[in-house]
C-alpha cells in the first residue's frame, strides 16, 4: 500500500469513528431525553437533574399535569406546592427561577398559559426586576436560556441537544435510575435550597444581610418628593408583559400577585428616589391587578417580618418557616379580602367578590 493510500485509509477510519461516536452520543441523548422535550423518546421517569431551572421547567409544564403555578425569582422558590394545593385547591408547580429576569419569568408563564388547558391559580411573586427601567433590554443573565424550548415546535429542540451540558444531565439521569444520584428538584419544581434551620447563626448571616456589621437604615434627608411629571416619566417596561399575562388568565381562574418580603436591608432607603420609584411601580401594578380581577398582596415593606433578622439567611432569602407563613397569608388575604391585623401584609387590590372581572388597563 502506498503512502497516499495509507493516509486516505487513516482519514476514512478517523471520520467513520468520529461520525459513529457522534451518532452514538446523539442516540444516547435522544433516548434518555433528560429535559423531556424529545417528541419520540421512550416513556420513562425523568426527574429534574439540572441546576438551571430554565432548561427544566418547559418539560414540567408540558408533561406535569399541573393546573396552578408559582412564578418568580428565588424569593418565591420556598413556596411549597403541596401546601398551596391545600390552601387554594388545584395542583401547583413551583416554576420560580434563581435570579430570573422579568423576561424569563414572562416566558415560562406564557408557556404555562399556552399549554395548560384550564388554569386554576396563577401566583406571580414580584421583585424589583419587574420595576427595572431597562428590563426590556436586559432580558437575560449569565445563565443560559433556551428559547427553542419555549416555542411550540418540539422538533427544533433537536438542533441544540448535542452538547456537553446535555450529555452531563443525561448521564445524571442514568445515575438516578441506577440509584446513584437523587433528583435535583422535586417533581413539582420544589426544592429547599436554604440550609437547615439548626445551622442558622448570627455570625453566619450578619454580613449577608447588612454587607458588614448591623446598622440602622435612616430615611433619606431631605426626603425626596417627586413631581407628577417625574412620576409619569419613569419607565417600567416589564409591566407591559405582566399586564398581558394577567389579562390572559382565563375567567374562572384566579391570578394572585405578591410583592415578596425581602429583608429591609434589601429595600430602597426610605424617602429616597429609589423608594419613590418603587412606590410608583407598585401603584402601576395595582392598576393592572384591578383591571384584570387579580389579587395584589404586598409583603415588601418594613414590618415585623421583614425587620426581624432571625427570619432571614441573607437580605433576600427567608427561612422555611417564613415561607409557610407567606403561603397561609396569601390564602387568607385572597379568601378574606383583608389586610393583616398585625400589619405584616397589605392587600393592595382585592379580588372581585363575585368572581374575576377583566378589562384593559387604561
TrEMBL record:
<feature type="transmembrane region" description="Helical">
    <location>
        <begin position="12"/>
        <end position="32"/>
    </location>
</feature>
<feature type="region of interest" description="Disordered">
    <location>
        <begin position="335"/>
        <end position="362"/>
    </location>
</feature>
<protein>
    <recommendedName>
        <fullName>SGNH/GDSL hydrolase family protein</fullName>
    </recommendedName>
</protein>
<keyword id="KW-0812">Transmembrane</keyword>
<keyword id="KW-1133">Transmembrane helix</keyword>
<keyword id="KW-0472">Membrane</keyword>
